[in-house]
Amino acid sequence: MISIIVPTLNEEKYIGNLLISLARQDYLNFEVIIADANSEDMTRDVAEIYAQHLNINMRFIPVTIRNTSMQRNIGARAAFGEKLVFIDADIIIPNRHFLKKINHVLKRNSCAAVPVWINPSEARFKDRIFSHFLNGWMMLLNSIRVHNGRGAVIGAKAAEFWQTGGFDENLAVAEDIDIFRKLGKLGNVGIMNNVVYESSRRYMELGYIRLFALWILNGIWAFLFKRSYNAQWEAIR
């Protein structure tokens, strides 16, 4: 079984589309665990309505602290699957074979990295250029054994995930870099050839230069000091 863990905070606009994407998959041996950080909107109601209508095996776990790493760890502890897939709430999966393929990749690797593109319905020219750059950078670094992946979708074998200690809850940012680094020590990072789509909300709000600078700074801080530069990652909804 695959356990899909979704950390949420005020995601009523996006969670339905993610659940629709999952319901369309041809691999159906999965569960969805939503670890919600005390949302103040209709996230829970929307998720439960879609899950019931789409016949998705879903559990909703309230989390009192707004910490994405903690939410993911709490969701993983509740998971029944031997494979874990951590997915951001604003993701859309266009390929109905995605779960089948990530299941196959995780049979041979400790973790899976997935290319992420801006949703075509929102994407501007510079969004496409930046997506090309980020996905190419991910593949280049992995080719020289610098293990990494895009944080929007992270696949891992459950046993090896817990062998690393899970996500570092002291990292508000760059926790994805840290988990790929730790999992890469236990086995290979499998690179998926399927893409997923994310919303452009963070890029629109912060701008590419500021956002990329924050990623670099927090990545360096996590590598040198085992903590992120930013005490909290700004929620953009």
Give the C-alpha Rg.
16 Å
**What's the architecture, going by CATH?**
Alpha-Beta Complex
Strand order of the largest sheet: 3-2-1-4-7-5-8
Structural class: alpha/beta
Main sheet record: 7 strands, mixed
What ranges have pLDDT less than 50 throughout 5 or more consecutive residues? none
CATH topology: Spore Coat Polysaccharide Biosynthesis Protein SpsA, Chain A
Distance between the termini: 31 Å
**Portion of residues within helices:** 40-55%
Going by CATH, the homologous superfamily would be: Spore Coat Polysaccharide Biosynthesis Protein SpsA, Chain A
Query: How many helix segments?
Result: 9
| Count of beta strands | 9
Q: Estimate what percentage of residues fall within beta strands.
A: 15-25%
What would you call the shape? globular
List keywords for this structure.
237 residues; alpha/beta; Spore Coat Polysaccharide Biosynthesis Protein SpsA, Chain A; seven-stranded mixed beta sheet; 9 helices; 9 strands; 43% helix; globular
List the helices and strands and how they pair.
Elements: E1 2-8, H1 15-23, E2 30-36, H2 43-54, E3 58-62, H3 68-77, E4 83-87, H4 98-108, E5 111-113, E6 116-118, H5 125-143, E7 153-157, H6 158-163, H7 175-184, E8 189-191, E9 196-198, H8 201-206, H9 208-225
Parallel strand pairs: 1-2, 1-4, 2-3, 5-8, 6-9
Antiparallel strand pairs: 4-7, 5-7
